[in-house]
Specification:
- It is built from nine helices and 14 strands.
- It is an alpha/beta fold.
- The chain has one domain: Rossmann fold, CATH 3.40.50.300.
- The strands form four sheets. Strands 6-9-10-3-11-12 form a six-stranded mixed β-sheet, with helices on both faces. Strands 2-1-4-5 form a four-stranded antiparallel β-sheet, covered by helices on one side.
- Helix 6 links the parallel strand 9 and strand 10.
- Helix 3 packs parallel to helix 5 and helix 4 packs across helix 5.
- The mean pLDDT is 95.
- The structure holds adenosine-5'-triphosphate and magnesium ion (MG).
- Adenosine-5'-triphosphate binds next to strand 2 and helix 1.
Length: 259
């Protein structure tokens, strides 16, 4: 497995605060990994470290065996993309121009056919010609997914590492299912490898191959959904009262909040 992404003993300290505390992990080829944890646990910060947008105070991330710091910015941009939790854009372009921005690491050619194909794939086909600022929150989120996939598009499909920070937070039920099914299909082809932050534990249970649970900057649990999503563990790490039962269709864990 020469294309795995590994993190070894990552720490990030800002002032007196330890935001990430000795996190080591491996993200495997063709895997769909969900990163979960309470507000402020460090999920967005960890994604920034894994993608090289933040430099750890200690430790190192390796992609395909090479430290992230030794990758050129172009090679890294063609190999990994990140969809942020919130994206504020200063310019108000049509959606297809926003998606085409993802092609920047591949040179000046705009590749209209690729942009068109990705917009169809991500449910953005109705958004052609619309100014980004006029889109609803969920529509903007779909456009950002399309931009991230455009960045990794190579020979007809996305290839590499895709990191998504709460990509379903503004999506309706149909689009949540559409996005997660799409990511699952793309990872099953083993060319795309996904790490996705999710607050909805039931979405993580249905679609993740593996779940990582972060709490106060530490990785406190990891494994298959059945191993991680247990009522006692959720009560312990989230402080929430829940019960967990099997999903009637998939038999994966389903988390119910107690009233
Ligand atoms: N630049 C910064 N300076 C100081 N503290 C920061 C900075 N960035 C993040 N933090 C703090 O680090 C902690 C982790 O933040 P992070 O955004 O990674 O959490 P998160 O797990 O993504 O939370 P959420 O679920 O709310 O998105 C938080 O307590 C946050 O306030
Ligand atoms: Mg976050």
């Amino acid at each position: 497995m020469d294309n795995v992404l590994t993190a070894e003993h990552l720490r990030l300290t800002l002032g007196q605060r330890q935001l990430i505390d000795d996190v080591s992990l491996t993200l495997n080829y063709g895997e769909m990994v969900a990163l979960i944890g309470p507000n402020g646990a460090g999920k967005s910060t960890l994604l920034r470290l894994l993608t090289g947008f933040l430099v750890p105070s200690q430790g190192q991330c390796y992609l395909a065996g090479k430290p992230l710091s030794q990758w050129t910015s172009t090679a890294l941009s063609r190999s990994r993309a990140m969809m942020l939790q919130q994206t504020l854009l200063r310019f108000d372009w049509p959606v297809e121009e926003i998606v085409a921005m993802g092609r920047a690491p591949w040179g000046p050619k705009r590749m209209c056919d690729i942009v068109h194909e990705i917009m169809m794939l991500t449910g953005c086909e109705t958004l052609f010609g619309r100014r980004y600022s006029t889109l609803s929150g969920g529509e903007q989120q779909r456009a950002q997914l399309a931009r991230s996939l455009a960045q990794l598009w190579h020979n007809g499909a996305p290839e590499g590492w895709l990191f998504l920070d709460e990509p379903t937070s503004a999506l309706d039920l149909y689009h949540q299912q559409h996005l997660l099914r799409l990511l699952k299909t793309l990872t099953a082809g083993r060319a795309l490898h996904v790490c996705v932050v999710l607050h909805d534990l039931n979405l993580a249970a249905l679609w993740a191959d593996r779940i990582l649970l972060l709490h106060k900057g530490k990785l406190v649990a990891q494994g298959a959904p059945q191993q991680v999503l247990q009522a006692e563990a959720i009560a312990k790490w989230y402080g929430a009262e829940v019960c967990v039962a099997a999903h009637p269709g998939s038999k994966t864990p389903h988390v119910f909040l107690s009233p």
